[in-house]
Structures are given as C-alpha cells and as structure tokens.
Amino acid sequence: MPKSILVTGGTKGIGRAIVERFAKEGFDVFTCARNAHDLANLKAHLEENHPGITVIAEVADLSKKEEVQSFAEMVKAKGIPDVLVNNTGIFLPGALHNEPEGNFEFILQTNLFSAYHLTRAFVNDMIARKSGHIFSMGSIAGLTAYPNGGSYAVSKWAMLGMTKCLREELKPFDIKVTSILPGATFTDSWAESGLPEERFMRADDVAESVWGAYNLSPQTVVEEVIIRPQLGDI
Hints:
This protein is of the alpha/beta class and 234 residues long. The protein has six helices and seven strands. The chain has a seven-stranded parallel beta sheet with strand order 3-2-1-4-5-6-7, with helices on both faces. The protein is globular. This is Short-subunit dehydrogenase.
C-alpha cells in the first residue's frame, strides 16, 4: 500500500517543493490552499508527472477552525497520512506595538492554530497505528527576534514550542516530530525584494531536508533542522 503525505499550503514555495519531492518517491498527496486554480494546476502537474499516485487537492482557508476540521475529515475518509507537514503560513510586516488591529489574531490563526487543530485531528489515529511523522514549518524568526517581524515572529516562536511539546508527548508511540527552521527562501513573498535570487536558499533544498529527516531508521529522529542562506540571514 503506498504511503501518503499531507502538506498544507502545497501549491507554492516550500510547500510545493515538499509535495514534489515526496510525489517523486511515490507518495500519495493530500494538500490544500485557498486558490482553486492553483490547486487544479498542481493536481494536473502531479498526475501527469507521477501517474501512479493519488492526488487530493482541496480548497480550504486554514485560518478558520471549521475549514481545518472539514478538510481533516475529508482526508480521514481517505486514510490517515503517514507524514503530516504543517506548512500553511502568512507573513504580514509590522511591529507588535502599532501593527493594524487584527493582524495578531489572523497570523496566529493561520500559522499556529491551523497546525494545532490539524495535528489533533490525526494524532490519535497515528497513536493507535504507532507510526507517523509530523513536521512543523517554523522559521529563523522563531529563534531570533527582528524589527518589523511582530506577530509573525511570535507565531513561529510558539510553533517551535508547540512542536517541542508534541515531540515529548509522542515519543512513547513511535511518532516522530520535527521542526524545520528555514531562513530566507526564494518564494513569491521575496520575489519583489530586489535582491538577487542566488542570495536566497532554494525551496528544493528545504524540501530535501524534510525528505532526509523523514528517510531515517525507526530508532532515529531529527528534532530540529536549522537552514540558512550560505551568506547568512537577510
């Protein structure tokens, strides 16, 4: 029976690179995003290039708890994924003391609460099965505070803390838990920065680190992966 991976926010950037990497290895794919056109394009691309896999790509806004739960129930009806990658995220610049009202709640709902609710939707089945690997997509911003990072940085610090807690809780059940903490990666959010593309990491490199962390023996887990551009943070 083929293994499967669920990647939230799988149509662009790091999420898409992870989807592509695991699809290449024959994994069935579950993913979601807010844009139906992007999902349809991804599904067609994967099915054309990896004809042996099943691709389920659904519209969902994971900043809304009810949509997280609806998406989770749809996936569970098909099966419990072997790998869960909580990748959905949004960055809105601003300082905590004067950012627009509502930014804090929206960013935490998108970046943190979505991962909390989605993980809870699957983890009891993983425990019963005694297998699974949960990845949380954090950020260097979850390790180092910086100006204009505001609520985004808070969400990533909290994501790292939540992932550490999950690691301790799930040890006895043979479920692996890994934090991925990338620095600046060339995605759409950086495309207008004016900096040369070679100054950034490649999304493919982050995806390769996820595959490497997953593809280890059962008695070994990578707890955290910190990845930075060779020339340092931006």
